[in-house]
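User: Just a sanity check before I run the rest of the batch. Below are the structure tokens for the first item. I only need the designed sequence back.
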């Protein structure tokens, strides 16, 4: 063993035997001694000095310039032992030495678990050490491998004092845990730390934010725990009781399912944001539907509180409306005064093939019919609408009420008989209507296998199909672009989505990739050109790149209203598992179009779509799946919606969405069958073009065509586009 090794071994022996004076004397006796060597336990001298709480030796080793960026077997910095053992002076000495002598910060060194010294101090409730680390600028926003930052850890320890310190030192208060997507507010409410919850809200924690897993808001948690004080506090700070989780449940639905009347009272009595009683969950149930599934008199509070603001005609998963349930449970008389001021529809069959009227006793049928007539007339006389039926127009005048009671009763009874033998359409109701056009839907011609691919070619065919069908729409398609966006061309080539190497026919789609808009170079010129023709609408698809593939949306510009709306087939917002930063996309799209013309009004999906919309309702249908169905019918749903929007152009988008969803439900249609069968329109139209060049879609997908064939296809497509634009 050489002299240096002998000296080091002697130093370790002195350290282990606690022979401190000999240790210090030896260290001071040698100028070039290596103080950084490790023993068989992977410890060096300074780690032992810390372990044994020998401040003087730590200072001596620091004075002799020993390394301080050393770590143990778990990559924990030398501060770890001092923090666990509460050796404040040693920690302070090491930090001061690092800052003053070498400018090296060891405060935020991460170990194998992603923990930094501040995390150790928080987990072990070392208050004074936490203060010291924060004073020396430890980064409170660093996450460990479990996804928690310093505030999350402090909340898990239920330590209000530490939470205050961390908030005062620059924490991003709404940051989510990396693994579960909970915010500090979610954690605090779930752990029932009321004072911490109050502190967070006082420091601008967002009471409306949803977690990434189940899309719960803090209010969902407060309701789940029946924490009345926190429900009130969250509502005072602007929590929205109408936000739905990933299953469509609002906090009100949660407390109804749990039969927690007090929690419900807090939500209902809230004055800041009115409860929406007509939100349905993923199964189509309202809060009152949930109540009626196991109704008894103990639940009358919910009925008395919610019925006034509930649409009693909405049907649930059993095709029962609230009016059905009121009649089944013989409760309609109890709430007659409320019902007399509502739209009441008895023309709906439940799964037992019965209408609400069928559940009314024989002795009460006359009474019930008079209620229907009174409600009908009340709607006529209290709504400032342009009614379409002649009798309805006449009955607006209260002088004609007596005559109207008789005539409307006859009309309802006559329509009821026709309805029972299925001689009326979906639009015949037992209340007045102000829509001239009746929107009836069907599942279309049945197909066993869907060959719609969602490629750029199919999207293009879908646009041409819409322009051919509707004379009120154009697009920005133009295959003779003066400038080709090389970035966009490369993007499509990478995915095999161009028709040929020249990137023709790519100037009709906006691409959203990596939180950036990829626009056609001359998009503004093409859009402004489309503005000058006599077509009311302009359609522009959006191709959205996500982690697991691609997604499709559509933009529809209405020249009459100067509005451009984005249609998202999932609904008003996207689940975290499918997140493509929709809010940011809307922000950039709105800015882009307002730069073209500041008068353009941008309408994002959350302004008119429900949380649970067409594609989600399609995806949860497990009894209609067929071989060949894609993972999602997003592109087809977008085309289908635009088709309906153009067909019923004078109905507002909000009303149209409600009618389409309601009619699919009321007609007991399958979302999956509707959209799969609708795709046949695009498939047949596409295959007609391919047939003219003697190939099929399999040939096209596998590049089994000649240049002559593809050039002919481009020629045919161009001719169709020109015809559609004229």
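Assistant: Here's the designed sequence for the first item:
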């Amino acid at each position: 063993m050489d002299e240096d090794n002998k000296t080091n071994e002697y130093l370790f022996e002195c350290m282990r035997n606690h022979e401190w004076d000999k240790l210090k004397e030896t260290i001071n006796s040698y100028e070039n001694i290596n103080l950084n060597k490790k023993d068989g336990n992977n410890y060096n001298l300074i780690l032992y000095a810390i372990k044994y709480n020998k401040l003087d030796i730590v200072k001596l080793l620091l004075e002799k310039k020993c390394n301080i960026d050393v770590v143990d077997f778990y990559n924990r910095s030398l501060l770890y032992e001092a923090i666990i053992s509460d050796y404040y002076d040693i920690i302070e000495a090491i930090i001061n030495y690092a800052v003053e002598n070498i400018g090296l910060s060891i405060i935020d060194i991460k170990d194998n678990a992603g923990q930094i010294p501040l995390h150790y101090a928080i987990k072990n409730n070392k208050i004074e050490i936490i203060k010291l680390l924060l004073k020396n600028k430890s980064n409170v926003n660093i996450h460990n491998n479990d996804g928690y930052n310093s505030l999350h850890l402090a909340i898990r320890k239920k330590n209000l004092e530490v939470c205050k310190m961390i908030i005062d030192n620059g924490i991003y208060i709404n940051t989510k845990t990396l693994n579960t997507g909970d915010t500090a507010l979610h954690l605090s409410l779930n752990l029932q730390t009321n004072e911490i919850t109050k502190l967070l809200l006082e420091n601008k924690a967002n009471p409306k934010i949803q977690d990434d897993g189940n899309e719960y808001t803090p209010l969902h948690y407060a309701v789940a725990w029946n924490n009345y004080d926190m429900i009130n506090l969250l509502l005072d700070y602007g929590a929205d009781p109408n936000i739905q989780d990933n299953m469509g449940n609002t906090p009100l639905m949660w407390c109804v399912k749990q039969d927690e009347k007090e929690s419900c009272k807090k939500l209902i009595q809230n004055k800041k944001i009115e409860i929406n009683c007509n939100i349905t969950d993923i199964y189509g149930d309202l809060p009152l539907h949930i109540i009626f599934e196991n109704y008894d008199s103990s639940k009358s509070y919910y009925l008395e509180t919610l019925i006034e603001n509930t649409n009693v005609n909405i049907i649930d998963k059993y095709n029962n409306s609230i009016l059905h349930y009121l009649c089944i449970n013989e409760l309609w008389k109890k709430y007659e005064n409320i019902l007399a001021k509502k739209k009441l529809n008895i023309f709906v069959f439940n799964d037992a093939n019965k209408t609400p009227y069928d559940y009314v006793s024989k002795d009460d049928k006359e009474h019930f019919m008079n209620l229907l007539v009174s409600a009908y007339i009340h709607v006529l006389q209290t709504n400032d609408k342009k009614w379409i039926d002649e009798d309805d127009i006449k009955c607006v005048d209260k002088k004609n009420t007596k005559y109207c009671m008789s005539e409307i009763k006859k009309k309802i009874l006559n329509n009821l008989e026709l309805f029972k033998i299925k001689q009326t359409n979906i639009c015949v109701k037992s209340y007045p209507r102000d829509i001239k056009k009746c929107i009836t839907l069907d599942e279309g011609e049945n197909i066993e296998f869907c060959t719609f691919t969602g490629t750029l070619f199919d999207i293009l065919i879908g646009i041409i199909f819409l322009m051919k069908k509707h004379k009120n729409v154009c697009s920005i398609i133009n295959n003779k672009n003066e400038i080709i966006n090389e970035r966009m061309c490369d993007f499509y080539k990478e995915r095999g989505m161009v028709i040929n190497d020249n990137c023709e026919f790519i100037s009709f789609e906006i691409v959203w990739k990596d939180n950036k808009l990829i626009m056609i170079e001359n998009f503004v010129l093409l859009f402004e050109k489309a503005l000058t023709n006599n077509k009311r609408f302009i359609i522009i698809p959006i191709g959205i790149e996500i982690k697991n593939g691609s997604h499709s949306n559509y933009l529809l510009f209405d020249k009459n209203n100067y509005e451009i709306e984005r249609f998202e087939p999932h609904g008003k917002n996207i689940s975290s598992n499918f997140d493509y930063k929709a809010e940011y996309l809307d922000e950039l799209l709105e800015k882009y179009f307002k730069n073209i013309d500041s008068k353009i009004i941008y309408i994002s999906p959350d302004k008119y779509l429900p949380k649970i919309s067409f594609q989600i309702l399609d995806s949860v249908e497990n009894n209609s799946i067929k071989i060949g169905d894609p993972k999602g019918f997003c592109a087809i749903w977008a085309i289908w919606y635009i088709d309906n929007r153009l067909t019923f152009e004078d109905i507002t988008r909000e009303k149209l969405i409600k009618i389409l969803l309601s009619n699919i439900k009321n007609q007991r249609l399958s979302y999956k069958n509707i959209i799969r069968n609708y795709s046949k329109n695009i498939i047949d139209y596409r295959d007609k073009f391919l047939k003219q060049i003697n190939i099929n879609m399999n040939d096209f997908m596998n590049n089994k065509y000649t240049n002559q064939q593809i050039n002919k296809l481009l020629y045919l497509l161009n001719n169709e586009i020109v015809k559609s634009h004229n």
